Amino acid sequence: MIGDDFAELQLFITGPILLREEVRKAGLLPEFGHRDSENPKRFGSIMNNLKAIAGNPEGYTPIIFNGSGTNVLEASVRSLVADSEKVLNVSVGAFGDLFHQMAVLNGKNAVQLKFPYGSAINLEELEVALKEHKPDLVTFTHNETSTGVVNDVVAVCEMIHAHGAEAIIDGVSIFGGAPAMINECKPLMYCTSTQKSLGLPAGFGIGFVSEKALAKAESVTNRGYTTDIIAQFGKAKINQTLTTPNGTLANQMCVQLDYIVNEESVEGRFKRHEEMRSIAHKWVETMEGYELFAQEGFRSPSLTTFKTPAHMSIEKLKEVKELMRGHGYLFDPGYGKINKELAEQGESPIFRVGHMADIMPDMLRKYLEVLGGVLNDFK
After folding, report:
1. Among 111, 129, 222, 334, which residue's Cβ finds the most Cβ atoms within 10 Å?
2. In which domain, by residue range, is 331 found?
3. Do 354 and 303 touch, CB atoms closer than 8 A?
4. Are residues 157 and 291 both part of a single domain?
């Protein structure tokens, strides 16, 4: 029978993530018509709770896009970068690179500023690039999933605004695990999705769109259809989606966001993510030859990256993955593109531990204990 051979693993990867049992059960709630009176029973609550998790940013409307976080990032590029404008894509890893790739593939006048893997955005270097390129818009990643770097979004946005540009932020892997700082940063648009720190399956992208962004989009041509934030806004303001939503995911999202806001509490969820970051940092101190990869002071609360000792290789990390599977866990052997480049430079690879969404501190401690035993056999 289909499903009999599916493994039940605890996911400690960086998305998709482990789901609470209540979220799984919510997938069995009744389907509904997305233009029916049943729709606002789900999406009215969803929209209000998204605002609460975001810190109730003034002048921003949450929009639900069918697809993933990538769809929202592309929508921001299509809707907010005019043909006559220049966009500077700032990257500290693979997903910052992806933002630049989307700008180029959509025919935008795009330039890139790249920082070494593991490093956060350096404000002095950013200022040099702003003066050189004089961009109209700047994109960057709040929390870089491939490297475990979290940028100082407030300081970065202050620098961008000081040079007359507007900011678009990729917050895909941190929203729901730490403050989004939208009120403080005032970006044109803040982009995220369901399958990371919110603790939901993949399927919806989420964009917090400012009034300024909507006004700006009016002057941008070729915004597409599903990537047009103006068309999307028309439905979002009445708690609907532009195109037919995944009703199963909507039911799960309604249940999960209510849990985050009204049971765990937003503040409590953020504190739990900080605690898990601390647990991961303390664990590596017990592991000979292993060290934290991301720059000190800029380490993510939702995932941690670890640099392995010289004897470790990409192939050995793949072996670790299978050994951890035998213990009931799904291990993340690192982002492929980055480990390949590190290998070409004669460097040992990195691996990642996702500690986001509804993973609990004791679950993380147990996982790291088992992982430490497995890794210590590779010497």
Report:
1. 334
2. 266-375
3. yes
4. no
Quick one: CA dihedral 174, 337, 90, 73, positive or negative? negative
Determine how many CB atoms are found less than 10 A away from the CB of residue 171.
29
- pLDDT per position in the chain (379 positions), as tens? 777 889 899 999 999 999 999 999 999 999 999 999 999 999 999 999 999 999 999 999 999 999 999 999 999 999 999 999 999 999 999 999 999 999 999 999 999 999 999 999 999 999 999 999 999 999 999 999 999 999 999 999 999 999 999 999 999 999 999 999 999 999 999 999 999 999 999 999 999 999 999 999 999 999 999 999 999 999 999 999 999 999 999 999 999 999 999 999 999 999 999 999 999 999 999 999 999 999 999 999 999 999 999 999 999 999 999 999 999 999 999 999 999 999 999 999 999 999 999 999 999 999 999 999 999 998 7
* Tally of domains within the chain: 2
> Domain ends where: 262, 290, 313?
262
Other Cβ atoms less than 10 A from the Cβ of 104: the count is 15
